[in-house]
Design goal:
Layout: H1 2-6, H2 10-13, H3 21-42, H4 49-63
């Protein structure tokens, strides 16, 4: 979103060399991830606005740490963190 807002490549926001292969790969990865998340969020259906919002938060929590639990089960990967 920041790259769209400022009309710059995502790689420039993290100070990668403009024409480097690494910058190109970073831009491609960010584009892919952004399109994937947007697609998943657009496909959400629900009976009401609250249900749709809850489902969208669950999708976002798969990709980002929102500081909220979305299920009543512990995350097995957390056992191996740090």
């Amino acid at each position: 979103m920041e790259a769209k807002t400022w009309s710059v490549r995502p790689s420039s926001l993290v100070a990668l060399e403009g024409d480097s292969y690494e910058a190109y790969c970073f831009d491609q990865a960010i584009g892919y991830l952004g399109r994937r998340i947007e697609s998943e969020l657009e496909e959400v259906e629900g009976k009401n606005k609250h249900e749709i919002e809850r489902k969208r938060k669950a999708i976002l929590s798969k990709y980002f740490d929102l500081g909220e639990k979305t299920s009543g089960f512990a995350d097995p990967a957390a056992l191996f963190a740090k």
